[in-house]
Structure formats: structure tokens, C-alpha cells
């Protein structure tokens, strides 16, 4: 064994304790550090020929890189609909690395069993029936991609071909209909060979991002054959929801696969005031939910649900003698594009076990209240105007006068140390989005964010 590696092994408890102290110090300052520090990069360092061990690496990381990292796990990082990591989720993620499971095979099946239990809990959390099975993936983009890959195979089933076996060309043109799809939908269609041009925009309701069911009805009637509908349960700009029951009811007249992108909107199911927004979610053939958003597990975690696991395994089956047979309950290696599947479920298992439905409901309701509060503050401020009502946890706003992109960029950069928001365009108007999904966020953080935005708007006026 390499001498330095052997020395680290001998000191492993001490080194892990030093890492724990470094992590604890970083987390203790989340609320006061610059949310997004200046974006300079250190001079590049050469690859060392001979390492100096973990202690020296930790010291160099803390000196060169840690000061440049954002406080993205903190309470005023309001960009990208990003959560943090609850204490339990962090503990689960650390143990994920410590146990380093290859959770793909029944031959070493504990990780798979834990994931299935966690998926069952999540299914119950979001009000899905046991007709849905689920699998962990890396994020919403991969969840949407997997769901649409299953939809692609369903189209083949309807047409008497198998795209997984015969190639996507066997399908011919495929209409994918949606009102206000997330950008990852077009990306998924590109990856799947269906093509970005397959995405057919359907008119939305006036002043809304929710699809017009009557317009969708007409678009389905014009489709040359079976189609795919991508419904939205929480759009990124305004957190608008399609009427999922009305969309599903169109299957009485049309043949289509219903995929619902509920990346963070699914969490509306946790609060009685907003659960009606996801009524009908269970009718979906596939569902995307991103867990590193409102479940507040570390980044790189989502779940993909479907009613057609048989088609899912047809798409993603991996034939190799060392993997064993496919079987009636497929191993995880047969259910996603990834052959390598870390035990992502453990962080989710920990936070669900630690805080339960009620603990996570409280996070959701507090974030919604914070979003409403910021929206009310900005609506009263003559420097700003809201671009949409605050329906759930996103505040979409702009400058009241001359909302030019360069002025909004200046505003965003001016407040970056205190609050991080991201740019957008809604109905042709440039704006900013503040997305609340972090378990740490409190009304005091809303006060600080609102004051920072007010002061910065005054400076650039």
C-alpha cells in the first residue's frame, strides 16, 4: 500500500473527526457568509506526483476553495428551486459514502430493499397509489428523461414496434404536447431521439402557465395517432399547475401517455391548503419529483414513478451474465440509464424517518409563507412589480420602471452576497425569481432579502 495512503488509514478516525469539524464550522456560518461570493478562480494547481495526505488536502481545500463556495445550503439561496440538507439527510448522505453500496443487484440486495422502502414512503407522501413503482435517479432532468423513455416504448406498444429493440425511427413522427414545459423536456426528447421539434406547444389559459384543457383536446384530436402529454404540476416561473383531472379525463376520447413533471409541485400534497393543486396526480402514467428541492436532501437526488415498470425494464434492461436474470421484480440496474447507482435513497430515508410527514409539511408551509411575505413586500415597494401571483413558493418579479435585462443583472449582482435570485423571462418581460425551498429559511431571512433588494433598486434607479 502507498505509504501516505497507509498512514491515512491508520489515522482514519482522527481525519474523519477533522473533516467533521470543518463541516460543522462551514454549516455554522451559512446564515452570515456571502450567499454567492465573488466569482474569481484561484490559479490552477498542478497534479501532485506525490500526495501529502488527507490532512494537507483538507487544509488546502479550506484555504483555496471553501471561501469561494456559495452558501447554497443556506436560507437565502433562492435560486434554481434548491433545498439544503436537513441534519438527518446530511447524516444519511455521509453514511451513504461510508458504506459505499453498489445498489443495483439482488445478489447484494440490502441497498435495493432500503430504496424500495423509501420509494413506498415517498409514494404515500405524494398521494400516489401502489400502482406506481419508483426508482431513484440523479435529478429532475433524468427523471423526465426516464419517464419519456417509458412513454416512447408505450408508443411503440401501441404501434406494434419496440423502439428499445428496433430504434426510434420505427415510430415515425411523435407529437409531445405541453402547455409550459420545463426546458429539460426538450433536452430529454433530444437525448431520446424523438427530437426537440416533437414538442408541440399547446395554448395556456389567459395570463397563466397552465394548459388550456380545451386547446389540448383540440391538439390531441389533430394528432395523427397516439401521443404523449407532458402536464405540469408547478411551473418554474409562477408555480402554475395544469388541471390534472381535466387533462386525464381527455383519455376518454384520446389515446395518450400522461407524464407529469411535478419536480417540486408534488410537495403541495403535504399541505391541506394546497393539496388540491395536485389532485389527479395519481392518474399519471409517469411522474417526475426532484428530491433535492423541497425534500431537502443533498444535491443529486430525484425519484421517477411509473405505472408501467414492465416497459421501463424493457427500455433499460442490461443484459450481462454477471448481473443475473431480469426477473419479475427487476433489479435497479434494469430501471434507469445508470448501471452505477449509489445509495441515494439513504439520505431520503433518514430525513423521512427523522421528521416524518408532519416535519416536512412544516418546511413546505413555512417556505410558502416566506414566499408570500416577500411577494407582499415587493408588491408594496414602488421599485418593483410582481409578474405573477405568488401561488406557492416562487416570487416572480421585475423592476417597475425599465426592466431591461442589464438593469436586472446589475440588481441581481448587487444583492448576491445577501440573497441569490435567478433571471427569467415571463411573457416577454425580463424578471427575477426567488424560490423558497430551504428548510432553514425563516421570516428574518425574508426581511434581509427584501431590504437588500430595496436598497439595491434604489442604487441603480
UniProtKB/TrEMBL annotation:
Cofactor: pyridoxal 5'-phosphate
Coiled coil spans: none
Keyword GTP-binding among UniProt keywords: no
Source superkingdom: Bacteria
Region annotation (Disordered) ranges: 33-52
Feature: compositional bias, Pro residues: 35-47
Protein keywords: Decarboxylase, Lyase, Pyridoxal phosphate
InterPro entries tied to this protein: Aromatic_deC, PyrdxlP-dep_de-COase, PyrdxlP-dep_Trfase, PyrdxlP-dep_Trfase_major, PyrdxlP-dep_Trfase_small
Pfam families per the UniProt record, alphabetical: Pyridoxal_deC (PF00282)
Family: Belongs to the group II decarboxylase family.
Protein name: Pyridoxal-dependent decarboxylase
Amino acid at each position: 500500500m502507498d505509504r501516505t495512503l497507509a498512514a491515512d488509514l491508520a489515522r482514519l478516525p482522527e481525519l474523519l473527526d477533522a473533516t467533521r469539524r470543518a463541516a460543522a464550522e462551514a454549516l455554522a456560518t451559512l446564515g452570515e457568509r456571502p450567499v454567492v461570493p465573488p466569482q474569481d478562480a484561484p490559479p490552477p494547481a498542478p497534479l501532485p506526483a506525490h500526495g501529502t495526505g488527507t490532512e494537507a488536502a483538507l487544509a488546502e481545500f479550506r484555504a483555496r476553495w471553501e471561501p469561494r463556495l456559495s452558501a447554497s445550503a443556506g436560507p437565502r439561496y433562492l435560486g434554481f428551486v434548491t433545498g439544503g440538507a436537513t441534519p438527518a439527510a446530511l447524516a444519511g448522505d455521509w453514511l451513504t459514502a461510508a458504506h459505499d453500496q453498489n445498489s443495483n443487484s439482488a445478489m447484494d440486495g440490502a441497498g435495493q430493499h432500503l430504496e424500495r422502502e423509501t420509494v413506498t414512503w415517498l409514494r404515500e407522501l405524494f398521494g400516489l397509489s401502489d400502482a406506481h413503482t419508483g426508482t431513484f435517479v440523479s435529478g429532475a432532468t433524468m427523471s423526465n428523461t426516464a419517464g419519456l423513455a417509458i412513454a416512447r416504448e408505450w408508443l411503440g406498444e401501441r404501434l406494434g414496434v419496440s423502439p428499445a429493440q428496433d430504434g426510434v425511427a420505427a415510430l415515425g413522427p411523435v407529437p409531445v404536447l405541453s402547455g409550459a414545459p420545463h426546458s429539460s423536456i426538450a433536452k430529454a426528447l433530444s437525448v431520446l431521439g424523438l427530437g426537440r421539434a416533437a414538442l408541440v406547444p399547446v395554448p395556456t389559459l389567459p395570463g397563466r402557465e397552465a394548459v388550456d384543457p380545451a386547446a389540448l383536446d383540440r391538439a390531441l384530436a389533430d394528432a395523427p395517432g397516439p401521443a404523449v402529454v407532458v402536464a405540469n404540476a408547478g411551473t418554474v416561473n409562477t408555480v402554475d399547475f395544469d388541471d390534472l383531472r381535466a387533462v386525464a379525463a381527455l383519455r376518454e376520447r384520446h389515446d395518450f401517455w400522461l407524464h407529469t413533471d411535478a419536480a417540486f409541485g408534488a410537495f403541495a400534497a403535504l399541505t391541506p391548503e394546497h393539496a388540491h393543486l395536485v389532485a389527479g396526480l395519481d392518474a399519471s402514467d409517469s411522474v417526475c419529483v426532484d428530491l433535492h428541492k423541497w425534500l431537502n436532501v443533498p444535491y443529486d437526488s430525484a425519484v421517477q414513478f411509473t405505472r408501467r415498470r414492465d416497459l421501463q425494464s424493457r427500455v433499460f434492461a442490461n443484459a450481462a451474465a454477471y448481473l443475473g436474470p431480469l426477473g419479475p421484480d427487476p433489479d435497479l440496474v434494469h430501471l434507469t440509464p445508470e448501471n452505477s447507482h449509489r445509495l441515494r435513497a439513504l439520505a431520503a430515508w433518514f430525513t423521512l424517518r427523522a421528521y416524518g410527514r408532519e416535519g416536512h409539511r412544516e418546511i413546505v408551509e413555512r417556505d410558502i409563507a416566506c414566499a408570500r411575505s416577500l411577494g407582499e413586500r415587493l408588491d408594496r415597494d414602488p421599485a418593483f412589480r410582481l409578474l405573477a401571483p405568488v401561488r406557492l413558493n416562487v416570487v416572480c418579479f421585475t423592476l417597475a420602471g425599465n426592466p431591461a435585462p442589464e438593469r436586472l443583472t446589475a440588481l441581481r449582482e448587487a444583492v448576491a452576497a445577501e440573497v441569490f435570485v435567478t433571471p427569467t423571462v415571463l411573457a416577454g418581460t425580463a424578471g427575477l425569481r426567488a424560490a423558497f425551498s430551504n428548510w432553514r429559511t425563516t421570516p428574518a431571512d425574508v426581511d434581509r432579502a427584501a431590504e437588500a433588494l430595496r436598497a439595491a433598486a434604489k442604487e441603480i434607479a
